[in-house]
């Protein structure tokens, strides 16, 4: 397991506009994710904030055991992502993950 956060210039937070922030992040993903997938990794991308009106965020899993084309309409939380990872690893759930609905990760 490796938790990687790109530097500020590529994490979709720093830029003169949302468009340039997204373009910078997309470019980073285009360069780095294929190498991770080629190494056999399952890559789980999750964003840390949504729009002010609903705070919905995307989480995308690719490679490894991630099902191609699968979708899930359930509203998971960041503790739910942690709960899913902890379930896969067979370790006790921490803090808010103890009561969260786990993201289905196989």
- State the share of residues found in helices, binned by percent: 25-40%
Overall pLDDT level:
82
**Content of β-strand:** 5-15%
Order of helices and strands: HEEH
Largest sheet: 2 strands, antiparallel
What is the rounded distance between the termini? 14 Å
Gross morphology: globular
Count of helical stretches: 2
Determine Rg (CA atoms, Å): 15 Å
Placed side by side, the strands forming the largest sheet appear as: 1-2
Helix and strand composition category:
mainly alpha
Total beta-strand segments: 2
Poorly predicted sequence stretches spanning 5 or more consecutive residues: none
What does this structure look like?
With 106 residues, this protein is mainly alpha-helical. It is 31% helix and 8% strand. The chain has helices spanning 18-38, 78-89, and strands at 43-46, 59-62. Strands 1-2 form a two-stranded antiparallel sheet. It is globular. The mean pLDDT is 82.
């Amino acid at each position: 397991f490796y938790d990687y956060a790109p530097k500020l210039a590529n994490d979709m937070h720093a830029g003169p506009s949302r468009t340039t922030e997204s373009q910078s992040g997309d470019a980073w993903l285009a360069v780095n994710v294929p190498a991770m997938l080629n190494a056999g990794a399952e890559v789980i991308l999750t964003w840390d904030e949504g729009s002010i009106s609903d705070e919905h965020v995307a989480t995308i899993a690719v490679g490894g055991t991630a099902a191609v084309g699968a979708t899930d309409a359930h509203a998971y939380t960041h503790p739910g992502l942690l709960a899913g990872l902890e379930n896969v690893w067979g370790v006790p759930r921490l803090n808010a993950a103890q009561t969260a609905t786990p993201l289905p990760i196989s």
